[in-house]
Protein backbone atom coordinates (compact mmCIF):
# COMPACT_ATOMS: atom_id res chain seq x y z
CA UNK A 1 0.00 0.00 0.00
CA UNK A 2 1.31 3.44 -0.91
CA UNK A 3 1.67 6.40 1.40
CA UNK A 4 0.45 9.90 0.70
CA UNK A 5 2.26 13.05 1.76
CA UNK A 6 1.11 16.62 1.38
CA UNK A 7 3.06 19.80 0.86
CA UNK A 8 2.28 23.40 1.79
CA UNK A 9 -1.21 22.72 3.12
CA UNK A 10 -3.40 24.50 5.62
CA UNK A 11 -5.17 22.78 8.51
CA UNK A 12 -8.42 22.87 6.52
CA UNK A 13 -6.75 21.24 3.51
CA UNK A 14 -5.17 18.61 5.75
CA UNK A 15 -8.56 17.85 7.31
CA UNK A 16 -10.15 17.62 3.87
CA UNK A 17 -7.49 15.20 2.65
CA UNK A 18 -7.70 13.10 5.83
CA UNK A 19 -11.44 12.68 5.25
CA UNK A 20 -10.58 10.89 1.99
CA UNK A 21 -7.33 9.02 2.68
CA UNK A 22 -4.73 8.41 5.39
CA UNK A 23 -1.96 10.99 5.29
CA UNK A 24 1.57 9.86 6.18
CA UNK A 25 3.34 13.22 6.19
CA UNK A 26 3.11 16.95 5.63
CA UNK A 27 5.97 19.01 4.27
CA UNK A 28 5.56 22.73 4.94
CA UNK A 29 8.05 25.57 5.35
CA UNK A 30 8.67 25.97 9.07
CA UNK A 31 11.57 27.03 11.24
CA UNK A 32 12.41 28.83 14.45
CA UNK A 33 11.72 32.25 12.94
CA UNK A 34 9.04 31.40 10.38
CA UNK A 35 6.11 29.67 12.00
CA UNK A 36 3.39 30.39 9.49
CA UNK A 37 2.36 26.74 9.65
CA UNK A 38 2.37 26.36 13.44
CA UNK A 39 -1.28 25.26 13.42
CA UNK A 40 -0.52 22.63 10.77
CA UNK A 41 2.30 21.24 12.91
CA UNK A 42 -0.06 21.11 15.89
CA UNK A 43 -2.67 19.25 13.79
CA UNK A 44 -0.03 16.78 12.59
CA UNK A 45 1.15 16.19 16.14
CA UNK A 46 -2.40 15.53 17.32
CA UNK A 47 -2.98 13.05 14.46
CA UNK A 48 0.46 11.40 14.64
CA UNK A 49 1.37 12.56 11.13
CA UNK A 50 5.05 13.19 10.34
CA UNK A 51 5.80 16.89 9.83
CA UNK A 52 8.80 17.56 7.59
CA UNK A 53 9.75 21.22 7.79
CA UNK A 54 11.65 22.42 4.77
CA UNK A 55 14.02 25.33 5.10
CA UNK A 56 14.42 24.52 8.78
CA UNK A 57 17.52 26.66 9.34
CA UNK A 58 16.54 29.81 7.44
CA UNK A 59 18.16 32.92 8.87
CA UNK A 60 16.03 35.54 10.53
CA UNK A 61 16.42 39.18 11.40
CA UNK A 62 19.50 40.67 13.09
CA UNK A 63 18.18 40.84 16.64
CA UNK A 64 16.86 37.32 16.52
CA UNK A 65 20.13 36.01 15.11
CA UNK A 66 22.00 37.52 18.04
CA UNK A 67 19.79 35.64 20.49
CA UNK A 68 20.29 32.40 18.58
CA UNK A 69 24.05 32.99 18.60
CA UNK A 70 24.01 33.54 22.36
CA UNK A 71 22.12 30.30 22.97
CA UNK A 72 24.45 28.48 20.58
CA UNK A 73 27.52 29.73 22.41
CA UNK A 74 26.08 28.69 25.77
CA UNK A 75 25.13 25.26 24.38
CA UNK A 76 28.52 24.73 22.76
CA UNK A 77 26.91 24.41 19.35
CA UNK A 78 26.50 26.32 16.11
CA UNK A 79 23.47 28.48 15.38
CA UNK A 80 22.39 25.96 12.74
CA UNK A 81 22.59 23.13 15.26
CA UNK A 82 20.58 25.13 17.79
CA UNK A 83 17.80 25.89 15.31
CA UNK A 84 17.62 22.21 14.36
CA UNK A 85 17.72 21.15 18.03
CA UNK A 86 14.83 23.53 18.74
CA UNK A 87 12.81 21.89 15.95
CA UNK A 88 13.57 18.41 17.23
CA UNK A 89 12.51 19.43 20.73
CA UNK A 90 9.39 21.20 19.42
CA UNK A 91 7.47 18.02 18.57
CA UNK A 92 7.88 14.27 18.39
CA UNK A 93 6.53 14.27 14.80
CA UNK A 94 9.09 16.75 13.43
CA UNK A 95 11.70 15.44 11.01
CA UNK A 96 13.61 18.44 9.60
CA UNK A 97 14.90 18.24 6.04
CA UNK A 98 17.74 20.74 5.83
CA UNK A 99 19.35 21.03 2.45
CA UNK A 100 23.10 20.89 2.23
CA UNK A 101 25.65 21.23 -0.51
CA UNK A 102 28.73 20.22 1.46
CA UNK A 103 29.73 17.27 3.62
CA UNK A 104 30.68 19.69 6.43
CA UNK A 105 27.12 21.02 6.54
CA UNK A 106 25.70 17.51 6.56
CA UNK A 107 27.93 16.57 9.48
CA UNK A 108 26.97 19.76 11.33
CA UNK A 109 23.28 19.02 10.76
CA UNK A 110 23.57 15.44 11.99
CA UNK A 111 25.35 16.59 15.17
CA UNK A 112 22.34 18.78 15.95
CA UNK A 113 20.53 15.66 17.18
CA UNK A 114 23.02 15.56 20.06
CA UNK A 115 22.46 19.17 21.13
CA UNK A 116 20.43 19.34 24.32
CA UNK A 117 18.79 22.64 25.07
CA UNK A 118 17.87 23.52 28.62
CA UNK A 119 14.24 24.44 29.21
CA UNK A 120 15.30 28.07 29.64
CA UNK A 121 17.18 28.01 26.31
CA UNK A 122 14.25 26.35 24.55
CA UNK A 123 11.84 28.91 26.01
CA UNK A 124 14.09 31.80 25.00
CA UNK A 125 14.22 30.55 21.43
CA UNK A 126 10.52 29.74 21.43
CA UNK A 127 9.75 33.41 22.11
CA UNK A 128 11.50 34.38 18.87
CA UNK A 129 8.88 34.83 16.23
CA UNK A 130 10.47 37.26 13.80
CA UNK A 131 8.46 36.17 10.77
CA UNK A 132 4.78 35.61 11.32
CA UNK A 133 2.40 35.46 8.39
Shape: globular
CATH fold field value: TIM Barrel
Tell me the total number of β-strands. 3
Strand content range: 5-15%
In which order are the strands of the major sheet placed? 1-2-3
CATH H level, superfamily name: NADP-dependent oxidoreductase domain
Count of DSSP H/I helices: 6
Percentage of residues assigned to helices: 40-55%
The main β sheet shows up as: 3 strands, parallel
Query: How many angstroms separate the termini?
Result: 37 Å
Description:
- By secondary structure, this protein is mainly alpha-helical.
- It has one domain: TIM Barrel (Alpha-Beta Barrel).
- The protein is built from 6 helices and 3 strands; from the N terminus they run E-H-E-H-E-H-H-H-H.
- A 3-stranded parallel beta sheet has the order 1-2-3, covered by helices on one side.
- Helix 1 links the parallel strand 1 and strand 2.
- Helix 3 packs across helix 4.
- The chain starts with a strand and ends in a 7-residue tail after the last helix.
Write the layout of secondary structure elements.
Elements: E1 5-7, H1 11-18, E2 25-27, H2 38-47, E3 50-51, H3 62-75, H4 79-90, H5 103-111, H6 119-126
Parallel strand pairs: 1-2, 2-3
Give the key terms.
single chain, 133 residues, mainly alpha, TIM Barrel, three-stranded parallel β-sheet, 6% strand
Q: How would you sum up this structure in a few lines?
A:
By secondary structure, the protein is mainly α. It is built from 6 helices and 3 strands.
